Write the structure tokens for this entry.
Amino acid sequence: MITSKDAPLEVDVFWSMRSPYCYISLDRILDMREKYDLKMNFRPVYPIAIRDTAFFTGISKYMGYRVPYQGIDTLRSAQFSNVPYAYPDPDPVIQEPDFGPVKPFKDQVLIQKLTRTAVAAAQTDKGWEYLNQVSRMMWNGMVRGWDQGTHLRDAIERAGIDADALIDEVMNKNPKKYDDLIEANQALQKKNLAGHTGVPLFTFNDEPFFGQDRIDQLVWRLKQFGLTERGE
Amino acid sequence: MQWDDHLKVNVRFIRPILMRDPEMFFKSTDYRYLYDPMDMGRQAQFLELPWRGYMVPDLCKTVGNAGTPAPKDEQGLFYRVYSISALIQSEHPDKAMGWARRMFRNMYGGVNNWQDLIPEVLGELGLAAEATEKKAKENEAHYFSILEQNEADNHTSGHGGVPNGIFRGEPFWGHDRIDTLVWRLKQNGLTKRWPQLD
């Protein structure tokens, strides 16, 4: 894409509403947006368990330690980053215990609702505020049963969005429109230089930076391209 | 090392995943083949480490575009380096880090045919090169059993990958978890050395 040399640097952020590592990186991303003259595009995609239902059963077969280690590492990485953390209850993806078999897409109402409302919020430039409210509510350990009562609705409202209208729009009126937007994000993600499809994935000039542990390298690269602090 | 003598680092050598479990190596995600080389070169630059690209020759001989391991009788270099590594780990453990550092300096620092410098590295460590090589070769099976034990212990920690730092049974996998490992060690009383006194 050709942009003016005065245009702010631009990063695409590919994100799953079910990823612990996405949530753990949230505060650092919000800090970056505040600190730097930088455009960060929030691009929700469906979790890997939805995109590839065989992923976790496959990986558990040939890499038995992968899922248990992730449990240790997410908890510890959250503590290390001073982020309050508990895995959401209920799990946004309906799956047998220990990342076993996954229910078909049509039965995955929770992750549909989350990912579609997220992509809709991103369309109106409220994506980061949506995450700031919704992800935090789901992951910070303060709410059990985040899908019950008005927890989700209230969080969306706090982001400055009419929650009832939005949920009705994405779940009843035009679900396909939002799934198409999500699929477009998934297709765009694959276009990075390595075709990396993990999350969180940051792409800058098509160069992929995978994981919350590559944010420091992303900033280092952006600085090589003239990243400046706001108001400099 | 800037840390107090209370920190003892035991270097334990593990065979590459390609050699110990080719199936796992080839089943990992497609994009790893493209992403890993990109990421490792970038990481080295980020840390301001000299990086001259992947080592030449490769420690493990592979065949074809798929890069499957060549048969055992063509893996002389792999058996040589790993027998020596296990010998040093078990018989000269205080030299194991020095061995690893010097070998990596040559392998990744741009020395083509880095294997020619193995005798020199052994000499720098104060080991008799010829005798060490001979002993490693003659007792290859014994030294490979040490490697297998290392690998079994690595798996028991909860992660089979490398580099994997293990502290009181807790695994810290990846160079990008070294900061987390140090944070954990500090919670358990790690202190810095006294400054040098005149």
Q: What stands out?
A: The first helix of chain B runs from residue 17 to 20.
